[in-house]
Design a protein that fits this description.
Blueprint (H helix, E strand, L loop, with lengths): L2 E4 L2 E4 L31 H15 L6 H15 L9 H17 L9 H17 L2 H7 L7
Helix pairs in contact: 1-2, 1-4, 2-3, 4-5
Length: 147
C-alpha cells in the first residue's frame, strides 16, 4: 500500500476487503457494523417527506406511549440530519435503525399497504444503498424483503 499526502489530496493505494473504515477528510464512519457509502446521493426532499410520513404513521401503530415517544423522537432526530442540500447519512441511519429496534421490541408487525408499511418501504429503497442493501434496512424493521 502506498500513501501520498500533498496538501488537500490524500491518495491511498489498494485497500480491499475492508469493512468499518473511514478514509479522508470528512469521511463518514460506520454505523453499527454497516458501512455508509459517501458516494450515494439521496434526495433530501424525498427523505424528509418520507420521515414526516413515518412520524405520522407511528401514531396509528397502537404502540404503548413510551414506545411511541421513543420512535417519534428517533424519527425527529433523523430529520435533524436532513438539510436542504445534503443528508447526514450517519445521523439518519442510526436513528431510523433505532425506530426499527423499538418496533420489534414492541412486537409491532409492519403491515404491507399500511401507512407505516409504505413509509418503511420508501426508507428501504432510500437508505438501502447507504448501508449495503435494502435487505439490511428491512431487517431493522423485521420485515421480509421485498415488503
Amino acid at each position: 500500500m502506498t500513501n501520498k499526502n500533498d496538501g488537500d489530496h490524500i491518495q491511498v493505494g489498494n485497500i480491499s476487503g475492508s469493512q468499518g473504515i473511514a478514509i479522508g477528510r470528512n469521511a463518514r464512519a460506520t454505523v453499527t457494523g454497516h458501512n455508509i457509502s459517501g458516494d450515494v446521493k439521496i434526495d433530501p426532499d424525498e427523505l424528509r417527506t418520507t420521515l414526516e410520513e413515518m412520524y405520522t404513521s407511528l401514531s396509528q401503530a397502537n404502540l404503548p406511549q413510551d414506545k411511541m415517544i421513543s420512535t417519534q423522537t428517533a424519527v425527529g432526530q433523523a430529520l435533524e440530519g436532513v438539510h436542504d442540500s445534503e443528508v447526514q447519512a450517519e445521523t439518519v441511519v442510526s436513528h431510523i435503525q433505532k425506530v426499527g429496534e423499538v418496533l420489534k421490541q414492541a412486537n409491532v408487525t409492519v403491515q404491507e399497504g399500511s401507512s407505516l408499511g409504505q413509509s418503511v418501504q420508501k426508507l428501504i429503497t432510500l437508505l438501502g444503498p447507504l448501508v449495503g442493501g435494502a435487505r439490511i434496512v428491512a431487517g431493522w424493521f423485521g420485515v421480509p424483503f421485498p415488503l
